[in-house]
Amino acid sequence: MFSLSSRKRKAAAETSPWQGPLVALRDIHVRFGRQPVLREINLEVPRGQTLAIIGESGCGKTVLLKTMIGLVRPNRGQVLYKGQNLTRMSEAELAALRTRFGFVFQQAALFDSMTVAQNVSFPLRQHGYKTPEEIQQIVLARLAEVGLPETVLHRKPAELSGGMRKRVGLARALVMNPEIILYDEPTTGLDPIMSDVINELILRTRQRNPVTSVVVTHDMHTARKVADRVIMLYPLSRLRPDEPQMIFDGTPQQLDACTDSRVRQFIRGEAGELLMELREQASGAF
Amino acid sequence: MSGSITQAPAPRGLAAALANRIADFGELLISWAVVVGDISLFTLRTMRWMFTRLPRRETLMPNFYQIGVLSLPVVALTGTFIGMVLAVQSYQQFRNLRLETRLGAVINMSLVRELGPVLAATMLAGRVGSAMAAELGTMRVTEQIDALSAMGANPIHYLVVPRFLGCLALIPGLTIMADFMGVVGGAFYSIVVLNIDSHHYWVNSQRFVGSFDLFSGVFKSLAFGAAIALVSCHRGFNCDPGAEGVGRAATEAFVASFVLILVIDLQLGILLDALYYTLWPEGPSFV
Prior knowledge:
The complex is a heterodimer. Chain A is an alpha/beta fold. In chain A, about 40% of the residues lie in helices and about 20% in strands. Chain A has helices at about 1-15, 60-70, 90-95, 115-125, 130-145, 160-175, 190-210, 220-225, 250-255, 260-270, 275-285; strands at about 25-30, 35-45, 50-55, 75-80, 85, 100-105, 180-185, 210-215, 230-235, 245-250. In chain A, strands 6-7-8-3-9-10 form a 6-stranded mixed β-sheet, sandwiched between helices. A 4-stranded antiparallel β-sheet of chain A has the order 2-1-4-5. In chain A, strand 1 and strand 2 (about 35-45) form a beta hairpin. In chain A, helix 4 (about 115-125) packs across helix 5 (about 130-145) and helix 5 (about 130-145) crosses helix 6. Chain B is mostly helical. The interface of A and B includes residues 103 and 277 of A.
């Protein structure tokens, strides 16, 4: 009975346009060994929205992003993509579903042993959709979209600059026409101009394709420029058990008006009493 | 926000020390059980993918080239020297018994049953196993394995199955090469340097070394190849972050593979010996 209704739900999701949130996280808890990283996260991402997840290093932003695509399995809770629960899917089902996701990794995560062309065309070849000629055309088009010339096609990732690698990573994420793109700190480690180029590419990608985006960042310029909505996570180690981990959820304009001292400290980039707390923690450890 | 941390004083005395030792031992046992369970699941997943869908030719060929073709020279060289060393070490004892011509039987029997497969496997573990662990470890650390999953490719199918098949399919060839070069090296030293009569050397070799000996060596090598691939890929997949983690994964892959080679060698040695004496109860005799 359960499997029948589940199958019907899946079939309905395939045929009719999904009206609910594209991605929904329900009561997500993630723990690595004895270390809790995410606690009671509830989040819905509607279709077409660009959501920025901000927070200091180690607060669980990347883990949350990887949970959305099933790379991290939560210890408790559900990850729903168009109503389908990723946490209950088999490897094969998950692999098929992931073709609708694009993931831009922090350090691009390009395959060292492959050329740029092989990297960008990898998802197409993996899923065997196109002929070699079609694949070549799509790769060139995607590289042109991110401002990379044809001359980079046969270069290895090690021969590219950081900004070029990020753009190749973005081209690879776009190649399957995903419904949702997840960006993990897209501007980290880049100069201010290249950071803004990446921000522009995120905006233009959304304008060209009706795509939903989730951007993990601690760059406030990126969050303000590209996002419709911002959430802020706080490290569990510095929260009481009854405090929520998501300490802000609103528009970038509301973020500037927020009165929570932790949010204000982050958006202003002030150390405040953090250094003293870190020192106390360090001395307590000995 | 941060409060002062007060810790209860640690209990002292013999009972507390003993309890700590027991707790440490328990923790060690649990961690071993976790690793064994993890490798077993990893092996099952590899087997499942191997029988579900074979990797593409362009994925298989580079791995086969790395594992087979590039390992061949070093395996051949090691085999040659071991054959010669065996001749040097055994000659004096056999000469005292005036049984020099039986040297061929001992050298060739040791090579095809034991030294050929173990040496080929050890060279494979050192040359290929640690390289596989380092490569996959780097891919883990730089999120390339996550990228594979994110693009709908299964990392076990894409990365482990070709390496497993490469080790499994090519280690028998490498073993036969080590055996052959060992036989050539041993014969060269015995006949050319030690002046043993070549006719009797080969006749005795033929008399005592049978097809079963060659089979048992090649059969064992299959188990060695599977163990090297699985342990090395598992270490790479579970690599700790950073350069130190990658280096440790490579070292652990070689050490664990080598220990496993010896353990499997003993187990299969006992098993194959029992099988041999069941089939041929009179057994071989060198004297």
